[in-house]
Amino acid sequence: MNLIERAIVGLCRLLLWISTAVIFVILVVNTMLRYATGSSLQWANEVPELLFPWLVMSGVVLAAAHGAHITTSFLMDAVPAALRRWTAIGTWLVVAALYGTLAKSTFQMLEIVHDEKSAILQLPGSLTYGCVMGGLLMLSLLALKSAWNAWLSTPVEHDPSEEPAVPEAHW
């Protein structure tokens, strides 16, 4: 794992743990208050709604970093090794470009959604969009890393009688 991937994984793990812990604590405290006093924290519903996208995006990026998404590899296993390598490089570059395009589009929307404020805490909507944009940028970097790994790899032919290898995947 290279430095960029370690930084992405570390940041996403931190965000995942913090957002999960904060959501859990708020929900537990708010539930206890409801049962004990019949009242609740006014902002207790709003904070988990704002943190949930951070939790989801960090999980998506971690899954991509660990190759834990579902893949369909039978097409890649059916082509010759040299073509498989170039197909992987091209595919990863397209995926990186698409994630980059989505991140750029999200960036262009930040100014628009910044004026949308949450009801109680008055936090701007751009916080959530910024989270999505950051996740898309990290996914783009991971796709570029996969393209680089495919570039550096040497083509290996598979024996047709062997169980096909599952390639590392980020989508």
From TrEMBL:
rRNA-binding as a keyword?
no
Where it sits in the cell: the answer is: Cell inner membrane
Cell membrane keyword on record:
yes
Give start and end of each Tripartite ATP-independent periplasmic transporters DctQ component domain: 23-151
For this protein, the record's InterPro entries field holds: DctQ (IPR055348), TRAP_DctQ (IPR007387)
- Output one GO BP term: C4-dicarboxylate transport
The record's function comment reads:
Part of the tripartite ATP-independent periplasmic (TRAP) transport system.
Organism expressing this protein natively: Malikia spinosa
- Could you say which protein family the record assigns here? Belongs to the TRAP transporter small permease family.
Which cellular components does GO assign to this protein? plasma membrane
Subunit comment = The complex comprises the extracytoplasmic solute receptor protein and the two transmembrane proteins.
Question: What does the UniProt keyword field contain?
Answer: Cell inner membrane, Cell membrane, Membrane, Transmembrane, Transmembrane helix, Transport
An MF annotation (GO) of this entry? transmembrane transporter activity
The UniProt entry lists membrane topology as: Multi-pass membrane protein
Q: Name one Pfam family in it.
A: DctQ
Q: Which residues cross the membrane?
A: 12-32, 52-76, 88-107, 127-144
How is this protein named in the record?
A: TRAP transporter small permease protein
